[in-house]
Description:
By secondary structure, this protein is an alpha+beta fold. It has helices at residues 2-34, 92-99, 111-125; strands spanning 49-57, 60-69, 72-82. The protein has a domain at 43-125: Alpha-Beta Complex (Sufe protein. Chain: A).
Amino acid sequence: MEKKTVIVTVPLVLIGVLILVWIIISSTIVKRANQLVISNAELLEIHDGIYTREYIQSPVKTVVQVEVENHQISKIEILEHQNGLGQKAETIVDDVLNQQILNVDSITGETVSSKVILKAIENALSK
């Protein structure tokens, strides 16, 4: 009976430790994303063109292509988005296009991917 208890208890403890480690790592990643400063681009100073840049905050990587016409952001294309579960965050580009600013609200539940996408757009516009 004692051996069966050990066989059941050890895997449960290991699973518990893995869950705890995942929670700690996840909260650290989200905290770093929340600390990212996203600056609005001075669109009047940006010439017409297509600008490509990336931003990486592990485990998320985003590469964007931003098109500027007549000092307005006319198109944003996400060329690469390594995100795990952050696919929904890609809709943030619609907010940027509609408002013509980078200081838009993050997509709920997609903070890290939202911030990384915004930072990639900022990098493209600060080229």
